[in-house]
Amino acid sequence: MKLLITGGGGFIGSRLARALLDRGHLGGRTLERLVLTDQVAPPEALAADPRVETRVGPLLALAPTLGTEGYDGVFHLASAVSGECEADFELGLRSNLDSTRALLDALRATVQRGGKPARFVFSSSVAVFGPDPAVPLPARVADTTLPAPQTSYGTQKLVCEHLVADYTRKGFLDGRSMRLPTIVVRPGKPNLAASSFASGIIREPLAGVECPCPVAESTGVWILSPRRVVEAFIHAHELPSGAWPTTRVVNLPGITLTVREMIDAMGRVAGRDAVSRVKFVPDARIQGIVKTWPVRFCTDRALAMGFKADTDFESIVRDHIENEKSKAVAA
Amino acid sequence: MKLLITGGGGFIGSRLARALLDRGHLGGRTLERLVLTDQVAPPEALAADPRVETRVGPLLALAPTLGTEGYDGVFHLASAVSGECEADFELGLRSNLDSTRALLDALRATVQRGGKPARFVFSSSVAVFGPDPAVPLPARVADTTLPAPQTSYGTQKLVCEHLVADYTRKGFLDGRSMRLPTIVVRPGKPNLAASSFASGIIREPLAGVECPCPVAESTGVWILSPRRVVEAFIHAHELPSGAWPTTRVVNLPGITLTVREMIDAMGRVAGRDAVSRVKFVPDARIQGIVKTWPVRFCTDRALAMGFKADTDFESIVRDHIENEKSKAVAA
Question: Which of A51, A82, A149, A209 sits 20 to 30 Å CA-CA off B82?
Fold first, then answer.
């Protein structure tokens, strides 16, 4: 089978690629070809696999050709992050809306030429919920909660969910959208997402670096680990079409932790020194954004569909340490 | 002031144009220029007014130029109807999504060049509610009810609502979207909308023509008259920006009638002969669509904002008869 990952050079995209190559099959079929697209080249270890092809460039430009290549499945992860989209409105429209639309239309063209609709797993976000400052969210946000995006990023993700549902209804693809919690621990550098601190306060201290924490220790975060999100993408693809609701979208399960609980768990795994490297440096702008985010969800539907949350934060910290070690060995 | 009506050659657009020209002002400012765009030329009586300019062509092609013209207000009514969008997916995307996006981006460019954001009144639809066959609607649909479009038309309207809200949040326009009930009595010919019968069963008998009714007499319809919807567009424009919710969208008020109640009201106004011209000829396809439509709404917010429903169906029938008479005199 032939699969495509957009954003395949990114953090989650490249982990998903690694996981797919390692298992070698999906839904009972052998993986023969895995195409990775991104603005940057994927890690060399991926590119070296004979099953992998890479296409470096803007998705908007690549999309029409991708539509002629007959994919069995597409994982659409390419996206500008929330902070980028707020800072540069056109970038957000182009990267998150126009590129998705171009990809959907390319896949539609395949079907209109007689091809089979591809399974299409779309990476959406709980940012669709906003919330609207005038409308309090329920105690636990559910799949049936009314989205009310308050960012261009959240708006674009929601719009794409609706397009995925309509293209699916029309038989142009077999869409499956997942609203991702905050992914912790992200490796690499801090980014422009307001949630960047949630990984920073673990990643930096574990690397021996002091890290400012811009929010109060009582701040809650709705979390999923890199390991679990990769499993979720694979599971989303493998589920039969009929397991998905008409909306084609679910809120993924996660766990709710306060910043204090996250730091304490890191301390239990890595010791007091790591904990002492987190410095609380309140940032009113980031606090103002983060305090509005929903942190408690009812994800009964996703759980019934077989998606899984992490069981505890210590395991997430240990996973991160292992991953960093194996990177250091590979380098 | 300078106003634009897209779809200005259509039934509601041309009535709105007539009403604006007759009153001569909007929000306390004198109407100096009214530009009407449509695929067809507007009625001659409108085009003859020295304040009117017409642009005939696809909105997608006209939009970039419109963005350079400095409108104070825009009424965006141009749209393909639900039946057309289901029959021709690309037509729907082009007419309802891409054209709206092009118009929004043209208005954004005005602001980015230093212009003032235009008031932008968008004609949306209760078709956004679907409903999803797996998720029953509440007894009364409210502004807070989760949209679940089941047609490309409904999807495209909902997507545009979200874009209007985000462009408004960013200061590129001052958007106001209204979800219209079924407009009865539409003049002219039956069209491809599944709701076409709701006007047909009044319009055709009053014109002395027999009319098949494809649905049962107990079928409910959520109705607003042409007169009231024109008033709603004007009121939507005149309201201060702060009167609108963050979502920038409201469900318009309407009245709920069964087909039987509509026909009986027509009988009271126009006599038994008119009633006898309605022939019940069940059409399973149309019944299947219409029976899923929500017919009861809670529109407290719109009512508090000053939008008004019709008081009774007899007045709607009388209005229609008056309008047809004045057309006949003009011809």
Answer: A149
